[in-house]
Design goal:
heterodimer, A: about 500 residues, alpha/beta, nine-stranded mixed β-sheet, six-stranded parallel β-sheet, 14 helices, about 35% helix, globular, B: about 290 residues, four-stranded mixed β-sheet
Chain lengths: ~500, ~290
């Protein structure tokens, strides 16, 4: 009987020496090509994240990065810029041995991807790195480019994608600008890449607390029984920024708050808050449950969506100009810098329970929170005066800046008589686990290198998000808003307060 | 930080002092500091290990906020009494407004009080949280105080490098493995070397010779591990060294990619993150115990 030779994969799987070694996730050899590499994102986020991964030995030994952009620059100049980015924005001490190892595999190609000759240079560079660095034809194409550049790059790159190893494509948000454009972009990309190869990034999903939301809900038996319409009065999700638009007028004038934040971050937070327990933590199971929520979500009508734009005001004691005075913004711009909305999730768990969302620029402080406000105790047996300081229980999930969870509970004020006050019990994430929290991009890049798409958005999720946003903005085309309608440094336009007052509720006090 | 308790204290004194320090640590008008605990960490520290244990603790408390109970046995003291210090240590994490605090209780068990440590520790354990017992120095396998403390601990943490004769102690440790989860800091130090040896598979499938330049404990653990994993006998050649410097299997050198030097505090912290048993370690120890070198 002929002896069958074992395949290398079988040999590896049978390696008894690997058993019990900590299952640290180290990806296979690969090269990452970053398109739009001369931009801020690469210097401020992507390279510091790659350095942090290298610092922890989480990158494969055979690893390379190719920066691609139209800005003329040598590889040496590119490395120098990235080194500065790592030193300025990285979370770890700068170690030259770690940096040198990363830099040795880093190249820069000045190319306009729409030009066939120039994109050949990128492919050649990647092929050379396969030889020189042993990256085995495995590729991650990272599109860190403006939305308008995604489709032309995919059309150019798609037919020439590497055929030797595996290929993954990371696409930065926003993915399209409405449902039609998102569908078209999905079609274009999927004509060259399988859905399992596409990683649509929303960096909020890489944040520890966002992931901890799933752990909080599904690893603790005490929350799920009350996580529904019977016990929850309503949910408030706030993504507040104290900054203005910085130097992003070109993008922001087109996107506004609804496309910049609501379509992706806010709706993802709604989905994670409202989703049913997945059967496991695989990419498909988690994303299936999120899509179900998004499909079930609607806004009850135009008067339940409020938009705003900031005028001059004061933020952190400093006088700041209005949106229309920002550089690059039209003096009569109708772009919204604030959105508040009431949504319903039409399913058994959440029917008739409002989800109030709000996001805005130039609000009094930077804060991202999910507040689950529970119904009041049905019959508190105390005198009315005793209860003056008592508010409903709120489970507050802080996503930034201080990641953690707090629960507001009623407690007796010590002393004679019976007076009740609300007390916050805080669980600050960093307090119990005093390890540096990884930056979102570290987690997401590593997941992509490992082929784990759980924290990335699937095509149908993106399309459901756009369908919802399209429904919210449709009435806006009919009326021109009276902007500005809130002063910088305040919590948004009065109409946003009325949105809740009509329901006998109010935004959380800050 | 305060050292308010000294001679002849009771457990009640310790609890009262902790409460007082917690109150005193909050400035008027400020948010109260949070006591955060993920475990009770009990350390048994004979006199010669006192300095090393205190040094390790300095970095540990910040990474693992917990109630730490340091037990300094003084069985030869003519008086039977308990001396104690209580620290309330607070740390500010970058970017956060509030401090997080943990507690360190240092107790000297004098005279006969050293023979019944569990009765001192039990009332001070934080309810519902796991208890890690770090035993400094050689394990006195037949001593009642070890048995008592193992009875209340969920996990025993040792460093077999601290043992004068690891070749004799490991077989005795193997007898304990059925009853309690054990972490060995020396085993943790071998991790990069084990990972490097694993990359030699499948060429080392039929290996028969292991050469280690390093401390005896690490060499013996690697020896037990390789035999257990390969399911075959291997002989060991060891050259003494302060740290593991070389591991060769059948003449093939296993080179880890980068061995990060870790402080004693980091090494202990890593062990305190493990809550489950380590079956691979247990197999390595048992395999060594079944036929020591």
């Amino acid at each position: 009987m002929p002896c069958r030779r074992r395949s290398p994969v079988t040999e590896l799987a049978e390696n008894p020496l690997l058993k019990g070694l900590r299952a640290r996730r180290t990806p296979e050899p690969c090269a990452v090509a970053i398109f739009g590499a001369s931009g801020d994102l690469t210097q401020r986020k992507l390279f510091p994240a790659l350095y942090a991964l290298a610092f922890r030995n989480l990158l494969p030994e055979q690893f390379a990065v190719v920066g691609v952009a139209r800005t003329p620059m040598s590889t040496e100049e590119f490395r120098e810029r990235m080194r500065e980015g790592v030193q300025e924005h990285g979370r770890d001490e700068f170690r030259s041995d770690v940096w040198e190892e990363l830099a040795a595999g880093t190249r820069y190609v000045c190319a306009d991807l729409v030009d066939e000759q120039e994109d050949r240079e990128v492919i050649e560079c990647l092929n050379e790195l396969d030889e020189a660095r042993g990256t085995a034809g495995n590729r991650v194409y990272y599109l860190a480019v403006p939305p308008s550049a995604i489709e032309p790059i995919v059309l150019q790159l798609g037919p020439k994608r590497a055929s030797g190893g595996w290929t993954r494509l990371i696409v930065e948000k926003p993915f399209g600008h409405d449902l039609d454009s998102a569908r078209r972009l999905n079609e274009v990309i999927r004509s060259y890449f399988e859905e399992s190869e596409i990683f649509r990034i929303d960096h909020y999903l890489g944040k520890e607390t966002v992931q901890n939301m799933l752990v909080l809900r599904f690893a603790n038996g005490i929350f799920e029984p009350i996580w529904n319409r019977q016990f929850v009065d309503h949910v408030q999700i706030t993504v507040a920024e104290s900054l203005g638009i910085e130097d992003r007028a070109g993008f922001y004038e087109q996107a506004g708050a609804i496309r910049d934040i609501v379509q992706n971050h806010l709706l993802q937070l709604v989905a994670l808050t409202a989703m049913e327990p997945p059967i496991d933590f695989s990419a498909e199971s988690v994303r299936n449950e999120k899509v179900k929520v998004l499909r079930a979500t609607h806004t009850p009508g135009p008067k339940h969506v409020v938009r705003g734009q900031y005028g001059p005001g004061h933020v952190e004691g400093e006088e700041v100009g209005g949106y229309r005075e920002e550089q690059g913004v039209e003096p009569d711009s109708a772009t919204e810098t604030y959105v508040a909305a009431k949504l319903f999730v039409d399913n058994w768990r959440w029917a008739d329970t409002p989800f109030y969302l709000r996001t805005g620029k130039r609000l009094p402080r930077r804060e991202t929170t999910i507040a689950i406000q529970f119904k009041r105790a049905p019959h508190p047996p105390f005198e009315v005066d005793s209860e003056e300081g008592l508010r409903p229980n709120v489970l507050l999930i802080h996503i930034q800046p201080d990641e953690g969870v707090s629960l507001a509970v009623g407690a007796k004020v010590p002393g004679q008589g019976l007076t009740i006050r609300t007390v916050h019990m805080d669980f600050l994430y960093g307090g119990s686990f005093r390890v540096g929290l990884p930056e979102a991009y570290e987690r997401l890049i590593l997941d992509c290198l490992l082929g784990d798409a759980t924290l990335f958005t699937r095509a149908d999720e993106v399309e459901e998000q756009w369908a919802l946003v399209d429904a919210m903005v449709a009435p806006w085309k009919r009326d021109r808003p009276h902007f500005p309608n809130y002063a910088a440094g305040t919590w948004g336009p009065p109409a946003a307060d009325e949105l809740l007052h009509r329901d006998g509720r109010s935004w959380r006090r800050h | 930080m305060a050292q308010a308790l000294t001679r002849d204290v009771t457990v009640r004194d310790v609890e009262r002092e902790l409460a007082r320090l917690r109150d005193a640590s909050t400035e008027p008008g400020q948010a109260p500091r949070l006591r955060t605990s993920v475990m009770t960490h009990v350390a048994w520290v004979p006199e010669r290990w006192e300095e090393a244990a205190t040094g390790t603790l300095a970095g540990l408390a910040e990474r693992h906020p917990s109630r730490t109970i340091l037990l300094f046995p003084r069985p030869d003291d003519p008086e039977n009494r308990l001396d104690g210090d209580v620290d309330f240590r607070c740390f500010v994490r970058g970017g956060q407004e509030r401090e997080v605090c943990s507690e360190v209780i240092s107790l000297r068990l004098c005279g006969r009080r050293a023979a019944a440590p569990a009765s001192v520790v039990l009332p001070l354990l934080v309810s519902d949280l796991p208890v890690f017992l770090r035993w400094r120095g050689p394990l006195p396998f037949d001593a009642p105080e070890l048995g008592e403390l193992l009875g209340i601990a969920d996990r025993l943490v040792v460093d077999s490098r601290e043992w004068p004769e690891p070749g004799r102690a490991l077989p005795r440790l193997a007898e304990l493995l059925g009853g309690i989860a054990v972490s060995d800091i020396s085993w943790a130090r071998t991790l990069p070397w084990r990972a490097a040896v694993a990359t030699l598979w499948p060429d080392v499938r039929s290996a028969s010779h292991l050469r280690v330049a390093g401390p005896e404990a690490e060499a013996l653990l690697l020896y037990g591990w390789l035999r257990a994993r390969l399911g075959r006998d291997v002989d060991l050649e060891r050259e003494p060294a302060g740290e593991v410097e070389l591991v060769e299997v059948d003449g093939r050198e296993a080179g880890p990619r980068r061995v990060e030097p870790k402080t004693p505090s980091d090494l202990l912290s890593d062990q305190l993150e493990d809550f489950g048993r380590d079956p691979i370690y247990e197999e390595a120890v048992r395999r060594f115990a079944s036929s020591p070198t």
